[in-house]
Design a protein that fits this description.
It comes from Paenibacillus dendrobii. Keywords: Membrane, Transmembrane, Transmembrane helix. The chain crosses the membrane at residues 6-24, 31-60, 66-84, 104-121, 127-143, 150-168, 188-208, 252-271, 277-296, 308-332, 420-441, 453-470. With 471 residues, the chain is mostly helical. It has a domain at 66-163 and 236-320. It is built from 20 helices and no strands. The protein has helices spanning 7-24, 30-45, 48-86, 88-93, 103-121, 123-140, 145-163, 169-178, 182-214, 246-269, 274-297, 301-320, 323-331, 335-341, 352-361, 368-382, 392-406, 410-428, 435-441, 445-470. It is globular, with a radius of gyration of 23 Å.
């Protein structure tokens, strides 16, 4: 496939590099993202008015794409507020304290539970289910909220999603693009997923403990009041907790856990995935919020339901405020560009990001080692749009290209590209993609992305080296 890169491609790439530099230097990127949208708009439309309008329209596009995540986070936060005010949350987590007694046990325990749950139901609904129950336990034993977010994020959106052995959405896409059976890609991915998972999580844990010991740890909290995490935010200082009898709290805690367990069973039986599974959890959370509010506040229950929902939505949009501009820019790398600015890219274009990936693959020498490195880089580049899945078909195509030219293992190269794309774009490095874990834990998604950056890059490097020997 011949890809003709235009000025739009090079400008987009230049702004990506600039944004990454600013993220690494812990600087805000909103202005640069807006400047990037303006520059792309001028190149696409040739008019100032079209470019300026593109800024607003890109914000609307990003908000629509993120609305499902904003909604589930806001609802979970609202439900968590009433559980904390009534003390039901304490009753829910009490039995778990005997297992997660240290920060280390909390980190690995939350991570492993998240990984197993995500295999069956994907990470987004798993975050909502696990965060509401296990985060308070982790905080109590000394694991920072940001550490809990790292565990949920790396094990769920990283290890579980990159392998995707149960639902098999990811390997199906890459295998089809590479012309291979799904089973061969899954088998080839097993050692790579294990290496990537071990290296990344061990590195992240070691760096966290080292920084905490040296006093250089940054919590990245966005909730000022309470203990600093979303599940412990108490809201206004004049609000008083609602006292419920101990037996009532334990009964309600058990009922809530059974409801969420019923959600898990329903997801499995009805084969609900992604947005459908998240919607089930969100609807259940709304019903729990209503019932608990009416029981706890009695005559004021109707007004308190609305109050809790408002608190949840305020928090949700506060979290997403700085994310929307950067998401708006990166969405232009895929279908959003044509939707907003028209068909100005070449006829052979499959989106700015995919074009850059294909151009990279076509400009390097063909051998097994270079093929592995290129598969990783291509996968990582296609993951920059924040979905993780939009570019993995390209990763499969690139793997097929190198395998045919060098007579190396196509399945291994395909799995490697899949892992790189999902670890980068599926929710461990791109700030808006890792928002579910960040928001549930009440930490900055940008700080979470920074904490993940070094472990993920080290993991990708080691995994690529292992893949070179396997091909």
């Amino acid at each position: 496939m011949v890809i003709h890169l235009t000025a739009i491609h090079y400008v987009y790439l230049a702004f990506i590099v600039l944004i990454m530099v600013l993220l690494i230097r812990r600087r805000d990127t909103t202005m640069i993202c807006v400047a990037g949208i303006l520059a792309l708009g001028v190149l696409a439309t040739g008019t100032v008015s079209g470019s300026v309008s593109g800024v607003f329209n890109s914000f609307i596009y990003a908000t629509k794409e993120l609305m499902g995540t904003i909604m589930i986070i806001s609802i979970i936060v609202a439900m968590s507020r009433v559980l904390i005010r009534t003390g039901i949350n304490e009753a829910m987590v009490a039995p778990l304290t005997r297992f997660l007694r240290t920060p280390a046990l909390a980190f690995w325990g939350i991570g492993i539970i998240m990984m197993v749950t995500s295999w069956f139901f994907w990470p987004s609904p798993a975050v909502a289910l696990i965060g509401a129950v296990l985060l308070p336990v982790a905080i109590r034993v000394g694991l920072p909220a940001l550490g809990a977010a790292m565990a949920m994020n790396l094990f769920g959106h990283g290890i579980a999603l990159s392998g995707d052995y149960i639902i098999q959405g990811a390997p199906k896409l890459t295998a089809d693009a590479a012309g291979l059976p799904v089973t061969s890609v899954m088998e080839a991915s097993v050692p790579l997923v294990i290496v990537m998972g071990l290296v990344t999580t061990v590195t992240a844990f070691w760096m966290m403990r080292k920084d905490m010991k040296n006093g250089t740890w940054r919590d990245g909290l966005v909730t000022v009041k309470g203990t600093g995490n979303v599940l412990a935010a108490n809201g206004g200082e004049d609000e008083q907790n609602v006292i419920l009898p101990s037996k009532v709290k334990k009964t309600l805690a058990l009922a809530i856990l059974l409801l969420f367990l019923a959600d898990v069973v329903a997801m499995f039986v009805l084969k609900l995935q992604g947005g459908d599974a998240t919607a089930l959890v969100g609807g259940t959370a709304v019903l729990i919020l209503i019932v608990i509010s009416l029981l706890a506040h009695k005559n004021q229950g109707l007004e308190k339901i609305t109050s809790y929902l408002i608190d949840g939505f305020v928090f949700g949009f506060k979290i997403f405020g700085p994310v929307i501009p950067i998401a708006a820019f990166f969405y232009l790398g895929d279908a959003a560009f044509t939707d907003l600015f028209g068909k100005v890219l070449p006829e052979t274009s499959h989106g700015i990001v995919n074009d850059l990936g294909v151009a990279l693959a076509g400009s390097v020498p063909l051998n097994g080692a270079v093929g592995a490195v290129t598969s990783t880089i291509t996968g990582a580049i296609t993951g920059l749009d924040g979905s993780g899945f939009s570019g993995i078909s390209l990763a499969g195509s690139i793997a097929q290209l190198f395998a045919a030219a060098t007579h190396t293992g196509a399945a291994t190269l395909t799995a490697l590209g899949q892992i790189a794309a999902i670890w980068v774009g599926g929710g461990t490095l791109i700030p808006w993609a890792l928002i579910p874990a960040a928001a549930i834990c009440g930490v900055s998604p940008f700080e979470l992305a920074r904490r993940n950056l070094k472990p993920v890059l080290i993991g990708l490097t080691v995994t690529t080296i292992v893949a070179i020997f396997l091909v």
